[in-house]
Each structure stands twice: as C-alpha cells, then as structure tokens.
Amino acid sequence: MNEIYTTDVLVVGGGVGGTAAAIQAARRGVNTIIVSEFPWLGGMLTSAGVCAPDGNELESFQTGLWGSYLRELQKRQPGGLNNSWVSFFTYQPHIGAEIFADWVRELPNLLWISGKAPIEVLRTGDRIAGIRFADITVHAKIILDGTELGDLLALGDVPHRWGWELKSEYGEPSAPESFNDLTEKYPVQSPTWVVVMQDFEENIAPVIPPAPNYDSSLFTGAWDNYGEEKFFNYGRLPANWFMINWPICGNDYGQNVGRLIESNIARREFNQECFWHSQNFAHFIQTHLGKRYGLAERVFPSLSPAFALHPYYRESRRLEGLITVCEQNILPMTGGRVAAKSDDTVAIGNYTNDHHYPGVKFSLESKSIRWGGRWTGTPFTIPYGCLVPKYTDGLLVCEKNISVSHIANGATRLQPVVMGIGQAAGMAAALCCELNCQPRDLPIRTLQMALLTDQQSPAAIVPLFNLPLNHPDWLDKQIYYLHSPENYPLDGNCPGVESVNSNYLNLDCFIGIFNCLNYQDYRLTITNPTNLLPTTWKIVSLGSFVDQQLQHLRQNQNIKVWGHLNSSGNWLLVEHIEQV
C-alpha cells in the first residue's frame, strides 16, 4: 500500500536546517509535512549528539529560531548551560529534542512523519514535484532538502559538488593549487560519531569493551597537551556527562569517507566503522583514566543509548546554486572586523573556519578576532542565492548542502548558521506558496522583511555587534543597512546606539579588582567573601555593552560584576558591571 499526501511544503530530513524550515513554514501558515529518518528532530543539535553548539554565541547574534532555542534551553535544562569550555551552551540532548517536538506539536498544520528516508524524486520537467518514501509518496508545491548528506540532490540529478575546489576556481586564499594526497584522502571533512560518557565518581562504571580493529596507537596522546580534567571539561554536560567529540587523536573518522555517497551499503559500512571508532576511543579513555568513567545511561533512544543516533556529518553534497559562498565571502573586509554583507542576505554566522582531517593540520586564512575578553569569529552573511538551484524549480536546500565551496563550508556548517539557513528556507518556501512563484523568482526584500518581522522568532540578517534583539532600534537599523549597504560599518558596530540595560537580578554578584593583561585579556581577583578557589578568574562576556565597558576600565580598579562562574573554562561570564 502506498499512501499519497499532498501539501504546500515538504521538508525531507529532520536535521537542524530541516527542522527549522518546517517549523518556520508552518508558523507562516502554509500546510507543511516533515519526513525524518530518525525519531528525534534537530540533527546535529540532538540526534547527532553535538549538544555543545559553536558560533553565533554573542548576544546580538542570538536571534531567530536559534535565539528562541537557546532561551527555551535555559528554561528547561537543570543546572544551566554554562558547563564546558568549548561552548557557552551545553545541555542534555533529549531536552533539545523535546523542544523541537513541542514546537511541532503546537502547529496543527505541520505533520511529522518519522522513520523514513527518501527513495525517489518525482519530476515534472525541470521541477521537483514530489518524493517517494517506503509506503508513502508526498507531492508538494515546494520541497526542501534537509537531509544530512544532500540525498535529494543525488536522487533528483540536481547539479551538485562533492570534494575540493582548486584555487583557480574561486581564487580562495586557502584552497590548494592542485589536487594532492590530502584532497584524495579526505574529499570532505571527517564525520564523528559522538558518544556521551559519564563520571560515576567511583570505579564502578561498566566495562566498555573494545570494538573490532581496536588499535590504541590511534588515540595515543589524545589529551597530552590538555590534561585529563581539561579533556573531559571540553564537552562537559549537566549530570556529570561528557560529550566526546574530540578532534585530537580522538573520534573523528574519515577512512574512505567517499563511501558515504557511493551506495546505501557503502554508507552503512562507513557508519559502522565510524561507530566502532568511537567505541574504541571510549574504551581507550576508560582503560587509561579508570573505571570511574563509563558510558552514560539513557542518553539516546537507541540500542546503544550512550551513542548518538547517527554520525555528526560536517560536510555533505553541496548544491550548485545561483550563488556560491566562497572563502572571500566569510573573511573580514580590509581594515575591518566583519565580512562584506551580501545584498540578498538571509542568515548570519560568525564562527571561525574550522576543518577536520584526522592527523593533518590544514592551515586556513584567519577569520578570528578578539571580542568580549576571548576569541570569536568574523561575522558573515548567507545569501539567499546559495539556497536556490541553478536550473531546478520547486526545490530549496536548507542544510550543509547549500551552494558553498569546500573551504568555506568549514564556517557555514555550524549548527546556529544551519538553523538560520533552515529558517530562511522555510520562510522562502511559505512565501513561494503565498505568491505562487518559484524560489528563483521570490522578491528578496519580501523574504528579508518576513524574517525580520516574524511574530515569534524575528531573525537578524545583518551582523551588528552592538544591536541585540531587545534594542528599540534593532529593526530600523537592520532595514537601514539592507537599503544602504555602502554605510555598513567596517567594525560591525552601529554608530550612535545606546546600551540597553540587561536583567541581572538572578545572577551571582562578585566584587573584585580588575586587571587587563593584554588586549581583550581580562582578569578579576575576587575580594568579597567567597569559598570559591581560585580567587582570580578570566572575564568574558557575550554582551556588547559589557565588551565596551571592559575596554575602558582602569588597571587595579575595584568593580562589582554580575554573572556566572565556569570552572571548566576558568572564566567568569559577565552580564553587568558597576564601578565600586
């Protein structure tokens, strides 16, 4: 029996981008179906176990569905989100999955079907018209590829890329001059099968057996330059859990990674090896650091509940779109701290360009800056044209499968960016249904204004360090820079903006002596009574007003601050400062 569905918007794949797209399209009011392979929505943020997201961490970039997700996590996660040193937001993955499931349940015009992968793409001429799954077929006006590996692109013969581009193609500073051993061994970045471990506080953890092909030499030296405590604190989660997603002699796996797109059998073979590699790393950790550490219990809904439901794929097939994002589009403008803004921007990101090739150090053009007492990345924009196929109608992409070069994918693949891409794609799909037009014909200003004025999760599309969502000038300034791109500030700060008072009443208060050790390298020596050790903490902030205050404080000045201590990162996350 093959059941037939007809809808306005169909999203195939329940990853970060697909989930965001389906929710946004349905919130806009069109009938939407999302078909996911796994029982959790959220992809990288949930079912793939990357519950320590990177990028878009600054207060002004916490907008759209990404900002709504963070605020909901803060309400629901016992123990809070400030646990690790790799991310400011770590949480138990089931809580993220519950948020997405709740958002879907709130929408009567959104149908979620799980446990199915696409089998066939149905075409009408140059238009994608439907998708066949096992037992069901769905016809839709607009279809979105939200799969982890861009599977619809292959099934539908939509032109796409896989692998590296040479410097001669886009002139990217970090691209190789010619194909070489690295480009052959790792055509795309290595996936990781995340495993969650637990501190049992005594040597009572069940034994983690080795998997086939165990080789301890693959992991030797994994934490030598960090130490045991810092290694675990990298991805520390609430409840004494640890996200093991470690790039240095750890569980990144890229052996014959091209198998991911060869066939279903080859993909399953690769994924099994990737799973075993993580199991072997967990075995290595327990063998060397003791039975105090074991596999966490009841993390994921699977037969191996400490292991994510699928690998964390860092790269997929990549669309050939109307526009291709390349390295120059994510690097800072000359003399500036932001990348050039695209005219058809629909999402923002700011993470550094991060590539993973086990055992290889690959140098990339720097896009890191000091801000708020720490390192962050140059903000950049995602153009709408990279979501739209060159030649195929009825289709948008909304995951890591956007039209992007292999080099630039290292910055666009991050979870908050992909959530923003998904929100933009979902809004675009809904508007195409409203206006009865194809994605390539959608007026860009209509889409941009819809994102900026969304009733539930308005999304920034112009990166401005000093303009958070709650600022009264936020919308006006976003629109101003859309219409006056020549005035977009090189430093990313909107001139003449006054600060907005933050709510710090529920934060911890500390009194101490301020010191600046170097540019954007701050310390507070706590002087008010406290049992906390050590007494000196690194000061960091995600808020632009605090960032400005820190730059103007004097050496040895007495100050009072409100915030949260993070012993994993040895920092004090400050949200408000007063002079004493």
Walkthrough of the structure:
The chain has 580 residues and is α+β, with helices and mostly antiparallel strands. 24% of the residues lie in helices and 21% in strands. The protein has 13 helices and 22 strands. The chain has helices at residues 16-28, 64-76, 93-105, 151-155, 167-170, 181-185, 228-233, 264-289, 409-412, 415-435, 444-452, 474-483, 544-552, and strands spanning 3-12, 32-36, 110-114, 118-124, 127-133, 136-145, 160-161, 195-199, 236-237, 241-244, 293-295, 318-319, 345-349, 368-371, 374-377, 380-383, 395-397, 508-518, 521-526, 536-540, 557-566, 571-579. Strands 1, 2, 3, 4, 5, 6 and 17 form a seven-stranded mixed beta sheet that branches. It has a five-stranded mixed β-barrel with strand order 18-19-20-22-21. The chain has a four-stranded antiparallel beta sheet with strand order 9-10-8-11, with helices on one face. Strand 14 and strand 15 form a beta hairpin. Helix 1 (16-28) packs parallel to helix 10. The longest helix has 26 residues, at 264-289. The radius of gyration is 23 Å and the shape is globular. The model has no long low-confidence stretch (mean pLDDT 96).
